[in-house]
Amino acid sequence: MSDQSQVRPTLLYHLYRGASALLAPLMWSKVAGKLRQHGVPEARVRERQGYATLPRPAGRLIWFHAASVGESLSVLTLIHRLGEAAPDLEFLITSGTPTSADLIAKRLPPRTRHQFPPLDTGAAVARFLNHWKPDLGVFVESELWPQMLVRARGAGVPLVLLNARLSPKSVASWTKRHATARFLLDQFALMLTQNAQTAVNLKAMGADPARLKEGSNLKALSDPLPVDQNTLTEVRNAIGPRPVWVASSTHEGEEETVLAAHKALLVDHPDLLLLLAPRHPNRGDQLEAMIAEAGLTSIRRSRDALPRTSTQVYLADTLGEVGIWYSLCPLVLLGGSLREIGGHNPFEVMQAGGAVLTGPGGYNFAESFAELIEVGAAKEVTSAETLTHAVGAWLTEPHTLDTARDRARGFLARQSDQMDQTVTALLELLPQK
Q1: Using an 8 Å Cβ cutoff, are 219 and 35 in contact?
Q2: What's the pLDDT at 5?
Q3: pTM for the full model?
């Protein structure tokens, strides 16, 4: 690692420090209010000020900081593997949202605890570091808080940027502030990127190429979505031998495209069933009316109904059952992508054995989709016509769907191999016992 003194704090960083001190009361009021609205106990709310609610465990401690739900859950598999490789290790996860805290609490690996992160102010970060004294700090994806990084590095904590992912907008913004970007990236002893393009972007921002390595995509190795086997069997028996395709996590303005494609598909596949699982199930009434207006028959899952022979659209307007639909059918269109919404996690489909169709608006997973499309595990569609063609091709030529599924499995296997390399890299940065 290069000498940290060679990359000095910039004027912009000093201005940030001053502004954060002045705005600390306002920041505290905002984040505390959100946590209290969610019913978070007051003691835990004060974790945002750096006051710990749990003791610091004895032994070496790895601290993972993640932005929200997806990032938090993505590190759990890595923590499991690290814990198996080094049984003396202890782990701390910090994430800022109540939802992520609730979900993590249900899935905590052994020797792991969760806290809300300190606000990025000098006093809060100092309290946090003085209590937890982490032996290694791992920042997941793009959650970079300047004072948290600089003060942790100053306290002698080796830092890692893990699963690094940066949008083109973020890269453009940071590149304009090259000196400050270089200063912040210099705090990291190691940067593990999701793919080669992110490494190129980080170099453009000023990262030291010697500290850059391509790592695994953690989200590709998260635990599969839960599946209620009784429900899966019940729905599968109700559908029988009919062909099925899934449109999952669709948003307003996307279902029109999906339904138009389904009507076109019914011409050549008259017994085809569309399983439509909207991102927001409370839109069930609206979607039921839309399906009827399109001249299609439907039954709603929220009414405990099962598809019949005459059902053309099974409206899965429930929460927590997406894993069932992915297990039911390997041909999945992921919503949030037919419009500029950002898309959703393709790896959840692949972990269930499926192949993915996506629109051009899945920018939150742009790097992943580009790689999946390149290896043949996914296809991009842009309209009702191209969606019709893609689904139709996989229905009429099932061997091509099988090939796409094989490519998806191969991608996941490569991520698992890279995960082993990530474990080794993190352990090498830890101080000896």
Answers
A1: no
A2: 45
A3: 0.80
